[in-house]
Amino acid sequence: MENKKTNIFDKIKKIKGLEFIIIGIVAFLIIVILFSDGTLFKSRAADNDTVEEYVSSLEARLEKTLSQVKGAGRVKVVISVAGGNKTVIASDVKTVKNGNELQVTETPVLVGGKVVVLNELYPEVSGVLIVASGASSVSVKVDLVNAVTTFLSVEPSKVKILTGK
Question: Residue 107's closest CA among 6, 43, 34, 54?
Answer without folding.
Answer: 34
